Amino acid sequence: MIFLKKQSLADTKKLAEHLAGFLSAGDLILLRGNLGAGKTTFTRQLVHALSDDPDLIVNSPTFTILQQYTGHGLPFPVYHFDAYRLETIGAADQGFEDYIGADGLTLVEWPDYMKEILPDQYLEIAFSYDGQDRDVRLTAHGARYEKMLDRL
């Protein structure tokens, strides 16, 4: 586990840029944190770090549940889920499992609402924000992600 205290938004951007160099197709990142903690900001920075298109628009999939990013110089597709709206219905039988571990990088905000379809191996990034300080905790679940954190 890596714990980063008092991270600014600039620090979050640097973390995303650094992590981008270790990611590959099939990777899964679960993003935890309260509203406004930095989950979507981190995702935006990560997608921009992977892309060669500075004008690529990366929006929160709050209402669509899933945003897909392909092209734009991305080395693989990026699937960005915001599972918040799945709280009452869950993710089973929605077809979302087809995106996890497939040909791209999958990022899931509010992963507890998709837990029935998530594998046991993933990188968890938890953001906490109290209005002043932002802390970030990275936790590896599985050998691949343990090696990734060791190299970070």
UniProtKB/TrEMBL annotation:
MF (Gene Ontology): ATP binding; metal ion binding
Alphabetized SUPFAM superfamilies for the sequence: P-loop containing nucleoside triphosphate hydrolases
Keywords: ATP-binding, Cytoplasm, Magnesium, Metal-binding, Nucleotide-binding, tRNA processing
Swiss-Prot/TrEMBL GO biological process terms: tRNA threonylcarbamoyladenosine modification
Cell location: Cytoplasm
Main subcellular localisation: cytoplasm
PANTHER family in UniProt: TRNA THREONYLCARBAMOYLADENOSINE BIOSYNTHESIS PROTEIN TSAE
Protein family per UniProt: Belongs to the TsaE family.
Name of the featured protein: tRNA threonylcarbamoyladenosine biosynthesis protein TsaE
Organism, as annotated: Oenococcus kitaharae DSM 17330
Upper taxonomic lineage: Bacteria, Bacillati, Bacillota, Bacilli, Lactobacillales
